[in-house]
Request: fold
Amino acid sequence: MSPLPTIVHLDADAFFVSCELALKPELRGTKCAVGGRERGIISSASYEARACGVYTPMPTQRALKICPDLILLPHTSGLYGKVSQQMFDLCETLTPLVQRNSIDEGYLDLGLCGFTSAAEIEQRVRGLQQRIATTLQIPVSFGIATNKLVSQIASKLRKPRGFVVVPPGTEAAFLAPLPIGKLPGIGAKTEAALNARGLRLIGEIAGKTESELESLFGNSWREMLATARGEDERAVHTDHEDAKSYSQQETFSEDVAVFAEIERVAKRMVDELLAKVREDKKRVRTITVKVRYPDFTQETHGRSLANATDLEAPFYPLVAPLLREAWTMRLPLRLVSVRFSNVEDGGQQLEMFAETDEKRRRLAGVLDKLNNRGSHPVVQHGHQLGAKDD
Ligand SMILES: [Mg+2]
Reply:
């Protein structure tokens, strides 16, 4: 079977502005930008504003000078991270192999999804693009190829709402006619310097002799040549892979609107997950609570401790506040989940915590065993430990 283009790069278009426009659709089609007014810079500009010469990062005062009717939008605290999370959550409905590179860019690896043709992959990724557009009102560009390098260049080629597929075997031909500045690591200055030496297009690299390449790129000429051919072996690293995370979710048969009930379910998950963490002799540092509404929109909030632990006590007080932060809409919930991440090996507890935590750990371990004997927990050990001081 011939290889399939299973690596996808996605890049949201004018992300901060798109998040704002999702809330203020009346501003669609206008020259607008997100940025600070006084001595600030533009951090995201609509395509209409870009056509007027506004780019990022540009001092706001300058942007207002060249584009006097620019509508300046202040940063909305918390909004972009939340939308980003929702966007990547939608990606994870397609594949668990999702690598977030930044708030609005990342890679998906569809290699384990069982797709059997390029057409099927294309159709599924278009479906994802559509779903992000309809649920979040965020335009996203996609590039699909056999590796990260080519998919990333492809996604940036036809923005906004781009969708570029590079069939396997055509990587070098795809890159050849593009300006050399499209290659990662070649900034405007390097590009100008290379242009001055007669090198304009990526395809021209392949036509150079070894010594010419060496004089242009020095020691890194071999990598440059491989890059120009569209070769790239890097794997997609998921956010949860080395440090595997511990998570659990519960879908309610009927939507639940009572806070205390959700909190009780979340705390039970904390108990059960940390019992597993102890069993694996690991410690965790970050807790994330996710809630999902009946219409499948979801919100996530997380917090990290200063030190990793395998005990309930430090996480217990965070459950209710995280739930409140995540559950912002006055709607009943369909699902709640708890995840622990930033997993560390258990052997490195700091000395200063050693004594009291060691006692608690032993006690918790004993209770884990007791709880495993029957189908029902004998003791709600997390609640007991949580009630202790410090
Ligand atoms: Mg972007």
